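Example 3.2
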Amino acid sequence: MKRQRVLVLMHEDLVPPEQLAGCDPKTAEWRTEYDVVTTLKWAMTSGRSASKTT
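Structure, written as tokens:
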């Protein structure tokens, strides 16, 4: 399978920090963006689909 690239666009005020030192992602304004970026990173490194199934 050909590797695909993903581009995530967000407002500069909502870009999550690289490291969460002292930040709580559950209460931060950028929590949605953080969830999207971490899920996509996980999917890309694990070779899985980014969609979650129950």
